[in-house]
Structures are given as structure tokens and as C-alpha cells.
User: Fold these one by one.
Assistant:
Number 1:
Amino acid sequence: MNMKKRWRNTGKTFLSMMLTAAILAGCGASDKSVKTSDTGVGTESTDVVTLNILTTKISSNLSEYPDTHVMDAMADRIGVKINLIEADTDKYNVYIASGDGFDLVLTSTTYFDQLIQGGVVAPLDDMLESYGSDIAANIPETVAFSRDNWSNGTGSLYFLPCQIGVDSQGVYQSMGPITRWDYYAQMGYPETENLDEWLDMLGSMQKAHPETDSGLPVYGVSMFSDWGMWCYKFPLACYYGYNELSGAATGLFQPSTMEYSNLLEEDGLFWASMDYYFKANQKGILDPDAFVTNFDDYKAKASNGQLLTGPAVFAMGSFNSDHFNEAAGYEVIPTAWANHWGGTDCTAGWIDKCFGISSKSAYPQKAMEFLNYIYSYDGCRELYSGVEGVDYNTEDGTPSLTQESIDLYLENGTAWKESGLGFDRNIVGLGNYVIHPDDGKTLSLFMDPSVYENVLTTCQKDFSEYYGVKYPDEIFARYRETYGLSDQSNTDAFTVALMPAAPDDISRIEAGLSEYALSQASKIILAPDSAKFEALKEETMKEFDRMGIQEVMDWYGAEWEKAKKKAEKYS
Amino acid sequence: MIQIGRFRLKKERFILTLLAVPFILFVFAFSYVPLFGWILAFVNYKPGLNIWDCDFKGLFYFKLIFQDWNKMASVLKNTLAMSFLGLVCTPLPAIFAIFLSELPSARFKKVVQTLTTIPNFISWVIIYALAYALFSTEGVVNQLLLQAGVIETAGNILGNSRITWVFQTILNVWKVLGWNAIIYFAAIAGIDSELYDAASVDGAGRFHKILHITVPGISSTFFVLLLLQVSNMLSLGIDQYLAFYNSMVADKILVLDLYVYRLGLITQDYSYATAVGIFKSLVSIILLFSVNGISKKLRGESLV
């Protein structure tokens, strides 16, 4: 064999061995892992560490703009920066199944038992004593509740929910009967007595404004199709005073009475929604593309000013921020018939966003210090309101935002996101309306009523002037008193938190029911007349019965009553 | 010679065998090891729990597949209908490749080939956005037809359940035509050019050369791909149908993979989803061996 051939063969052998080695290395475990610990309180680096937080998709600004001066301030204070791993459900479950690759997990009550049983999360009791003084001092009821009910019967502390404290709508209502304030004003602020009149008003508005300035068609009512049943559940939930049970496909409750309700039952919210969209179609104001538009296209339409109403201000694209210096904007109109969103008692926090520390985290102590920081008043103030002396100043013990911070908030653009101010609420332990005991101001200074007048858009100023209030939300409080409307302040947070996740057989029936309801929705809404609407309703209800809706309602009804009884201990 | 146990291999053959090792490992790691996951279909699996700690459920999830037979029948009908339309369109990439190879300009051929291959790399989400811009009532197509007076009111193709099967098939053909033609370009390039020269000498025209040389030359490739496609009839994937799913076409677009996704994966019923996956694999194997047997009898050629 000549030299050239020998080299060629040696090369081949080397190449194949390298490939084999590369694949074997890829299949094996990484040797980069640092130490693994169960509760792992031990010596850890004093350098700044980055903690990976696993979460389902929350579309956080933190994912887009992770390096902010607020994050730097947190790093200076506790030596921690965070990196969000926003995963879709499948990817999230793969992480959960491996138990690796994250230091903290943001999870829901549905996962608690399996995470504890599988040893994916570590008990926090020992670390709470050593590094959790603020948690123990500020949220003792939640800690006790978590130990009692979220420990798979072990009595240990595993999970802490974010956003503990009373919620509020703040400056303005974000859900309710929304419309274009400028058009509404042009029509002479017509009062409506019910949903039918509201649709009539939208019809008149559409007639007056059939096209946008750029010639695009304007629609009274539209929807988006890629959020499943969302458009048949939430837009009218607020009007009728419902809220959903966390993680349930069809389970609802009425905060004002704390009664259970099912979305799909005969007089349920689904049918109220069907009626609403059916009437909109009959009046000729339903967007012909309502069933094929996805959320991004929906927001684009709203941003163009093509929609006259919508389910929430956040769904109306960039229209309000694009016109914040004009009297044009989407606003929730106070009415005598629509109930109000917000005001929920969140003593048990957001139960679908609860923190647990991974039992395989290399930095359990740092993870605990981070949790302690996000449940401390000063930590939350920093995350929501920024750095003292930079974003806000304190004089005579009273903090106030700088004009630059207020301007950023008002513009609500890229600069606001880059600033890191108004930290993602999913990652903060205490709610932004919680009062700081040292200065009596809300943790988020942007949510302090004294600031409201300074953060109003031109449209909101116009709105407030018309109703004779300092800021829009004030009028809704008056309407509640005058017309006996409700918000969600009667919610018993512990009852809601104690509702167990539906077992597999019930979930399966619910999934089938939702799937069928979704496929029927377009037929019902586009029915040519009321008689056909009623016939389709009857047909659909019969199929719901065949599929087992009663079984679902019985299960939820029984568990709801049990939860209410159990919650008495904490109320 | 190299001795490994009872086997004696020439050094060169040993090196060649060694070269195959990474790929054998690859197939083993990504095609056989995941079969271990089939165990999920027999237990009530919850992410985070050790498989051995999950409740054993036997064939429960397999029975569940056929529990709501009305729904499953409708889903299978959609799946088979669109698969059948896909099978009908199987010759298109071959025809496209043949015609394109006949073009005299090499540069033009490359441009067309590139342009037709690009859609394969566009995600279905983007394609939906394009389809919405084109076919919604405000879309370009409706506006042009309205302006030209061809239609009086804008149509809603994306929400028209009567044309869902055909529309989805057309979209899929548009997306994969260029990509699927690549293998036929390779097959055509492999045909001995002397055959064409000989045919020209015998007075064959372009059409005759296609019919008697090119088509027979790529027919074995065509039938191999056809057999594989038949065996995959139940596996249409999720992406396309998820992107185009809406209430108006729900009854026609719900294919098996999407049904499993919506009822199994969204509710995290992984055991059920795995059982359906096993069911699909079994059907695929049966279909593969059936069409393979038919091909063997009719054409004397087969895959296995």
C-alpha cells in the first residue's frame, strides 16, 4: 500500500472515530453540571449568578430585553440575574420530565402533586428559615396555606404564588364594553340599557364611519380564531360577572355570589356569547373574516382603527399608544348593565404562576434569596418602580416618580421596555397595588392614585373630563354604587385556590365538549335567523348531553362546594 | 486481516464498517431508543413522575381511541381524504422535474428550481399569514376580483369548508413541489445519456424520449416514494392544519394528528397521544407491507 493510500485510510479511520465520539458525547450527560443538591444549602459563589426560570409562554418583556438597569440593581443587591425559559407546553413538560436545566419553575396548581412526587422541586422549609425572612414576615398566610394544601400532604413548603395582594384596575378599566372614545363622543355619548342597545350603538357608529382614513373597512365586532374558546368566554365574562376557574376548560364562577357555573350549560356564558355574535351578524356589523383572523391580524386591524369594539384594551393593538397625544383611543365605557373586571382578592396569589425551586438547581440558596427579594417590599418597589435616585426620588419619606419615568410609561414604547421599569408581574411576588408599609405608597409607584392624573393619555383626559372624574377608573366605582354592578372584589381567593385540577376523565370530556362547541360556534353565529339559531342550540345541547356535560358539571359543582367549606378555615 | 471474535474482516472492509458506525448509532439513538417511550401508552403518565411510579392502565388508552367512534370516523375521513388527494398529486413533482429538465437554459432551470424549493422552508404560520393577506375578504385576490367585476361579494376561501380538502392539498403541493422534485432531478441525471443519443438516432422526438426513456428511468424512484407515502397515509402532521384550523372548517380540517394534539397534548394526555401514535405505526406497517406485496406482484419490484 503506498503512502498516499495509507494516509487516506488513516484519515478515514480518524474521521469515523471522531464522528462516533461526537455522537457518543452528544448522547451522554454533560460534564458541565455543577453540584446537585436536594435542599442544597451550602457554600455558593458570591459572584452574580444567573438563575434560569422555567415558565410557560408569558410573552415577557424580560425575554426580549433581559439586560436592564433594574436587573443590574437586583444583581447588585442579591447577586442574582434571571433568565426566562419561556417554553410551549410540550417543551415545558420535557423540562419537567427531565427535572433539569432550570433553577426555578413557574407552575400551576395542576402540576403540584406530580412535581413533589417526582422530586422535581425541593422543600423550602430549611431555606425559608435561613434566607426567607421577608417571605415569612410578609406573606405568612400564604405560606401556611401552601404548606396545608400545596404540599401533596407532606406539610412542607414547596410553592409560592406570585402577585399576592389585592388587585385593581388602576387608572382605567381594561375589560368591559370597549369602543372608540372619539367616535362615541361624536355620537353624543349615547347611554345604552343593555347589550342589544350596545350592538345598535356599534351599528350606528359603523354607519357613521364605514372606513378608516386610509380606506380600510371598519367592523363593529370581530374575533380571533387562534385562541380556541377565548372569544366565547372572556369578552362577555366581565359583562355578566364571571371569572374562570384556573386551568379549567369549562369551569367558571361568579365572584359576586361565589357560585359555580359551567361555560357550556344551557344558560351559560357560551350561549350568551353566541347570542351576542349572532345578533352582531344579523345587524351586519360582524367582521366577515372574524372566524379566520388570528390574534396578530386582529391586533393589526385594531391598530389600523378598523374595529369599533374588542374584548380588552390590551387586544386593541397599538392604537392607543399610537394616538396617546390625541383624543382618539379605545376606552371601556361605563354602563348601567355591564359588570366590572378587577379588584380580585389575591391573598392566595396568581395560582397559575407559582414558584418552586428545582431540586437539581446548582444555586438553591441564591434561588431562595431571589424569592425572598421578590416577596420583600423594597425588592418589589425596585422591580416595579426602578432605582431610587434614578427612576424615583424620595423626599420627606415620600417617594415620587421622576418626570422621565412618567414620560416613558406614557409612551409605552420600546424605551419603556428597555428601561426594565414595571417589571413583569408574573415574576414579582407581591402585587403592584400592595402598599409599602414604610411610606404608604403602592409598590408600583406608577399605580399610585396620586400619579394617575399625570399618566393619562389625551383620550383618557377627555374621558375623565366628560364624566367629571380625576381619572377613568373613578367613574366605574361610582357606577358600581349607583347601579349595583359588581367587580371581582368578592372573590374568595382561598376557595378558588382550593379547587383541585379536574381528573383525566373529566378533562377528557371537557376537551371533547370544547372541541365540539368550537366547531358549532360558526354555524350558530352565522345562522340565517332566530329559528335556525334555536334549532342549532337544541342540537348542540343534545350533543353536549351525549358527551357528558352533566358529569362535568356534577364534578365541578361538588368540588366547588368542598372547596368553599375548606376555605372557611382561612377566611 | 482483522479478527473480531469469530469474524475476520479485511482491513479496508473494517474501516468501511467503522464509517457506518456513527450512522447506526444515530438510527439506534433516534429511531429505536424512542420506542421505549411506547410504554407511556400503558401507564397514566404525568411529566415529572418516574414512569415506574405511574399507574398501570393496560389497554385503556387504546380502547379510548375508539370510544367516540363518530368523532374518530369523521377524523379518519378527513385524514384519508386529504391523504388520497396527496397521493393523486404524487406524480406532480416527477412531471415538474421532467419538464424542467427539458428546458434548454440551465440558468432559467436553476432559477425556477430555487424559487420552487424555497416554499418548503417557509413555516406554515407564515404561509397562513400569506394566505390571509391573499384570500381573506380584504385580501388581494378578493379585491382584484371585485374590482374586475368577476365577483359581487368577497368570498371567504379560508372559511369555506366545501373546498377545505382541495385547498389544503393545493397549498401543500405548492409548498413541497420543488423540494420533492429534487430526488427526480437526481434520478433523471442518473439516466445514461447514451440512451437519449441512441433514441435520437432512431428518430425519437422529445416527447418520445420522455415517454420511453425518462419516465421508465425514474419509475422505480416514483414507486418507492409512492409506497412510502401510502404507508404514511395516517400521518399528515399538525402544523399546516393547526395554522388553518378555524370554527368554519373545523369539521373538514381535523386530521388525526391534529385531533390527537387538541385532545391529547393540549390536555397533556400523553398516554392517550402515545397510544394513538402506536396505532398509527401499526396501520402504517400493515399498509406498507400490503402495498409492497401488491407492487411485488404487479411490477416484480418491491421495497422489502
Number 2:
Amino acid sequence: MKVFRAFEYRRGTTILHRVDPRSKLVYLILFTVLTVYFTRLLALLLVFLSFLPMVYIGKISARWKQSLRGSLFFIVFIFIFNFIPTAYLSGNIYGAAISAIAMSLRFLNLISVFSIFFLTTSPEDLTQSMVQLKIPYDYALTFNMAMRFVPTLSREAQYIMDAQRSRGLEMEKGNFISRIRNYIPVLIPLIISSFRRAELVADAMESRAFGASKKRTSLYILKMGRRDLLFITVALASSLALFAVNLFL
Amino acid sequence: MVLAIIEVKGLCYTYPESETPSLIDIDFRADPGEFVLVTGPSGCGKTTFCRVLNGLIPNSYGGDFKGTVVVDGMLTATTPVYELAQHVGLVFQNPENELFCTTVEREVAFGPENLALSREEIMMRVEEALETVGISHLKEKSPEELSGGEQQKVAIAALLAMKPKVLVLDEPTANLDPVSAKSVLELMYRLNEKNGVTVILVEHRLEMVSNLVDRCIVFDAGRIIADGAPREVLYSEKVSELGVGIPKIVQVSKHLSEFVGEQLRFLSSDELASYIRGRRN
């Protein structure tokens, strides 16, 4: 559950927080594409290093590290499942290790770029930018709500786990399969309570005139400024540079 | 006679997929500016009644709905909830499910934004609502950082921004500590007294409210079993038979009445205290 908490937005005043979500979306797309496109370890490492200044500027290092720590399980998983088959098929242990590390790093990069984006972008700004990108408000709001209730649900999951543990459910008992099965008594109450909560939230929204008019007003309109131009320029330039470096590596 | 702001006639309601009706033969009328306390054991139909008043029932819930409910001149069964929302505000039990924005300001603006008002008008309404509730200083905060009482005040401000004439509160203090509960209830009293908002308050903390309200109705098993001044209602036979949620002060008064041989009907510990002080002198 910690993985989710690491994506939770908290207000800030750094330049990264103030840049328009649409500019950050450009950054997100560019660096996601680079990460997926690159296969060499060194290139992926460079991409990873490029996140460090971003994390520093946005003052999000603590939670970024948390997100990396939270994904440790997946990284080990990815490493093993890449290493063993490649090493077995090619017989080249060194090469297999390098490519498995590259794959794990690729995953770390994806986690990082998304975490930079979500940690510095308020759900409302994101929703608003979606609306201004002509995405229907209902879809934008659905997305906003999903983000809003992630921490709530993760807290609830924790409560349910505690409750089931106190009734004697042993979550860490047994082999891989039965451990997964142990989660069923947590998941079922969680799903039911989520549906119930969804109904209550819908009631609250309707009670505040949700859906009253086809074209609702937005209190704040996002405007791209010089800051955004600069941000996009830097993002484009650095990704082109990384691309070039990858060609000559 | 004044034109009623809420008029419920012959209301029977059964939730879809439910066998037993949740509300039976409800007749209820409230005049503008009234402060009505609603109480009764849990599962007696109070929450259902709240949903009826702002049109969630039958518009969103469906089910078997008989009778008529007219609020501020509108027949709820044929008026969309978003229309009714501008006349009746509903405050829920758990503020966690009511608030979904990252700042208090945006939270309060959500309703007026839906109404497609102009930006200036929204700003004005937000300021006004925050001021009325007394939380202007929290404008930039995130609802998650606030205490339960403050959250509930944000929820109330968010409704006031739509300028409703009626506020319906479904156990707004259920998740609050006594101090926050008191301040929320006092806010309701002020809104009623000063701003003339009609208030329908479902509440279990009777000691805190029974001396603030004009009228008290008691639900049991889907019916209204008592309706009148709190002093009459709380000391009536029917209500003492229920035994649930009756303020301790009522019990104390009854015992004391037997003891001193005189009919005592206190509603607050203050009243009791001043009586005792009077006896001593």
C-alpha cells in the first residue's frame, strides 16, 4: 500500500508544483517514451540520473525514495524473471545480469517519472487541464475521484487487515499461492465498502448540484506562461540530448 | 397561515429490493425559519427521511414511493436533485465522503461551479459562505488536514454557497468529539436564528440541542410517533417507552420529581442547576 501513498499529492510551492500540468504531461510523455525506447543500461542510467535534479527542485525526495522502496518487490521480481531465462538460454551470465538490471532500471524510471508527475500535480489542476484539453468533465472527474480516494482506500485496507488479523487471520502464512488466498478476506470487505462509499459520495455530489448544467464554470482557468515555455524547452532539449547520447553510445 | 417550506403528505417509502417499508404514513410540515430536531433509535427511518427531503429519494434511489413531498414549492418526485440542491442542502454523517477537493476554497466552489455561475459570483459566494460559517482562515487548507468539526463546517459552507433555504443534517456530529460537536450545533443555531435558514437536524446528542430547538419529532420503525415542543415530546409516555437516546437529564428530572413531589421537566443541566440553587436559598 505504501507504493500508492508515494504518489499522493501534497501541496507545495516549488516551480515544479506551479508549472502547468499540461507542460508536465509533455515531460511525462517524453521521458516515458525514452525509457521504453532505450534498452542499454547506460542510457537508462542517464535517464535515471536526469530525475535527480527534478526531485531536488520539487522537494519530493523523501516520497520519491519511498516510491522506489515500495516497488522493491516488483524490481526483484522483474530482475529474477529476466535473468533466469536469458541466462539459461544464452549461457552468458554477465550479459543476462546486465540486461536484467537494465529491465529493472527501466521499471524504476517509469515509477520515478510518474511519481514526479503525480507528486507535484494537484488532482484538481490535472482535472482542469483535462477539461481544457477537451476531455469531457465526467471522465476528468472520474480520474480526479480515483486519485482522491486512493489514500482513503489504502487506509481502509489497513483497518480491514488489522481487523482480520485480530480475528486470527495469518496473512504471512503458507506458500505463495495460499498467501495470495489470504488476501481474500481483506479484498471482499474492501470492495463492498468501496461500493458503499461510492454511493455516499455520489449522494454528496448530487446534493451539490452535480450535473446541473452542461457547461459548468471553473473557478480557476489554467494558463500557460513563460515558465511553461521554459519548462517544455528544457524537457525537449534534455530528451533530445539523451536520445543523441544513446545513438553514439 | 404561512406557506409551509416543507410539506410531506401520506408518504410511504420502500427501498428497491427491500421487503419492509422504511417510512410509513409520514405527514410532516415545517414553516420557514423553524428548527426541527429529529431523533429516534437507529434504523428508524431518519436517514431515509433526510434523503426524501432533498429528493435523492426517489430520484436517485428508485424504490416504491407513495405520497407527496413538496419542498420550497417544488414537488420532489418530479424535480431533479440538482434543482432541489439549490433549495435544500444535505449534510452527511461522515465528512470524509462529502469532501473530495484539495482545498477548502475549491470544495465550497464545487456547487456554484456546477450551477455554471459567473466566476465573480462564485468567488463572492465562497467568501460569504466561509465567513458565515467562520472558517475564512481555512480557505487555502486541504480538507484532509482539518479536524472533524472543521471538516463538517466546510461541508456546511459548501452547501451554503448554493444559498439553500433549508438545511438538513443527518447526524452531523456522529464522528465528532464533544467540543467540535458543540461548535457545529451552535453554528446551526446561529444560521437558523440570524440567517433564517430552516434547519432539520437529526441528532443523538439531545442534551446539547434540546434547549436550542423549537420542535422535536421522534421516529420509530418508520413512523413519526411524537411531534411537538422538546419538553412535551421528551417527557411524553411514548418516548420514554422507547428508552433510546433520551437525555439523562430527563431521567434525572423524573426521579427528582418523585422525590420532591413536584412535576419537574428540565431540558438542560443548567436548568437543573439553577433549580437546585433556588431550592437551597
